[in-house]
Amino acid sequence: MFSILRPFLFNLDPETAHDLAIKSLKYNPLPRKIFEVDDEQMLNIDLLGKNFPNPIGLAAGFDKSAEAYNSLLKLGFGFIEVGTVTPLKQYGNPKPRIFRLEDDQALINRLGFNNDGMEEIKARIISEKKKGILGVNIGPNKETNDQKNDFCLGLKNFFDVADYITVNISSPNTEGLRDFHDQKKLVDLINALNKIKKDNKTNIPLLLKISPDISSDHIPEIAETAIKNNISAIILTNTTNANKNNLISEMKKEEGGLSGEPLKKISTNMIKKFYKELNRKVPIIGVGGVDSGRSAYEKIISGASLLQLYTSFVYRGPTAARDIKKELIQILKTEGIKNIKEAVGLGI
Question: How far apart are the first and last CA of the chain?
């Protein structure tokens, strides 16, 4: 069905096509059974105090305002991350702000945290009653005077409805956000968030989403900070501002974060470096160019325990998670691996 609809969808502006997809998913038309695969128990993994049916998640950015996450779970994903959610509703950057680079199997976006705001999104999550593992990605409003306080508001709002909270310090489209990679500023932010957890007597897992554009010098500092300050997992990586020179598409000149195939090696190399520094004390969620069972396996043996995708979902359609699971299970069987957790870090 998607192969028939794809030419029509790809003739639309990318954001129009995305909005149409969200509206379609709200109707929840497809039964979960279509997206199940044989021997999926080989992909079960325990992490963050939860049992993930499989490690293939949908990254934040697709379902920004938690409008369709239950329907997305039915497409075979092991978990869904919604957001980025800001305290106040905001429009984001001017349109156009998403660009398909079809020849490069990539996207460039400069959306700027467009979302319905935390109160409306929380009400939606409560009314929908989540039917799987749901993470909420939080960030600051563009016009805020206090980015740290916006993160605190996000945690206070969602700790009692989410399965985990991702602290997004890595989007290239919000001014000053990546400054939180500085160790002093990062420790200050995490301390404030951990105080909120303590005051509210919650053990909600806190995850950090990291930029692929940081210098290698920052990696030991961030790893040390994560280990010492009770970070539950690190997501590697967000979109990149780099690696555009070798792209084919004319759209490569557009400003914004690059995702998809051109991010694949960059994020996998970051996973390897962080895996060594973290020394298995903090797990990794790998993102960037996950478009097949082979690319998923590469990230897992490089040190990722879970994975997320976004761009390949746009290009491959609703069966993306199912197809990747099938391919990944076949690779595990070929390698004589009984469960996915045995493969984590196997290539390091």
Answer: 40
